[in-house]
Amino acid sequence: MSRIIIIFAIAASYFVFAMLLNSVGIVILQSINSLGITKLEASTLEGFKDLPIAFASFFIASFIPRIGYKLALMIGLIIVTIACIITPIIASFWVFKLLFVCIGVSFALVKVSVYSIIGQLSNSTNSHSALLNSIEGIFMLGSLSGYWLFSWYIDPTLKSSTQWLNVYYPLAGIIIVALLLVLASSIQKPEPEKAQASLFYDFFNMLKMAYQPLVMIFIISIFLYVLIEQSIGTWLPTFNREVIGLPTNISVQMTSIFAASLALGRLLAGQLLKHIHWYVFLNFCLGTMILIILVILPFTSQPLSQNITSLLEVPLAAYLLPLVGLMMAPIYPALNSVMLSCLKRSQHAAMTGLIVVFSALGGTTGSVITGFVFEILGGQQAFYMSIIPMLFILISLYFFRKLTQKTAEGNR
Description:
By secondary structure, the protein is mainly α. It is 78% helix and 0% strand. The chain has 19 helices and no strands. Helix 1 (2-21) runs antiparallel to helix 7 and helix 8 (125-152) runs antiparallel to helix 16. The model has no long low-confidence stretch (mean pLDDT 83).
């Protein structure tokens, strides 16, 4: 029973952070609509979210095992609860920046803790991969729920209104529920590998890990993946609004298809990867992603002949384009699982710190580049550019597989 409660606690924590993290695309769209912010300025919100994740992960990943994963989860949840409560009260663009800084720092605490706890709960590579994909699938269900929750508070007829900010009050309530689940769980504080090791020793050990060839190829792959996911996920609401021509609330609702595709893809991958080698599977996913972009994106350039008032009137291309998330979904958790399975459990917190750092940097880079291209050349060209990092991941996967095989042989 205690294991089930722990899984519920980390899943709930991940669920609420999915709602918060993936709301950045909605906040960008609403900042442009209701506050008159430019696309380039709005794109900086991704940086206020991701750079704190990167810096916090870099400096606190080795510290988290010392205070315990349970306390780290609770601190993260408390910080974002307070931030959600004050955001609608102040209702200004600078408070969005503060909100995403709080979300970023808190998520660093939560993600390092969750990944490390998964290592405690798993006794094999298969069980680790299955649980990690399930938790990541729940993360995307949280993202899906967030899109619909925000859309309920958006009135497309009130473009300059900040009434939609009231969504942060129920969000604060959901976070408190997750906090209570963590409080009721029996998450164990890890035993340090070396009793006399200092905090600086742990920190520099994490830095030294990054210079290993296997780890370098891995973090390049992670960086490129998140660059793709965030560039599409963050700008899809704006793409739906300005390129396809959908109303604001429907643009947000349609983006939930992308989140649903990611969730379904990760939940299915947890089962498929038990029977298919990860390298073959991920190459298939990347090839299909490129095909979807090349085939579907041209159809989004056709101007709408009518005003859209319901989901039934939305053109087919708007439904098909977000399905790229179905193929994208398994890549991130599969790579993480393969990498973490190569390491001792005592190294999981440090490795997760590196994962979070380079994921955050990839997310910010993708959002800013897409925002710049969107502003200068248009939304279609911005999305076509996602093919370039997809091709680079195909190359990096080849070397990642070679190095993991070499590591596995060396551990025999």
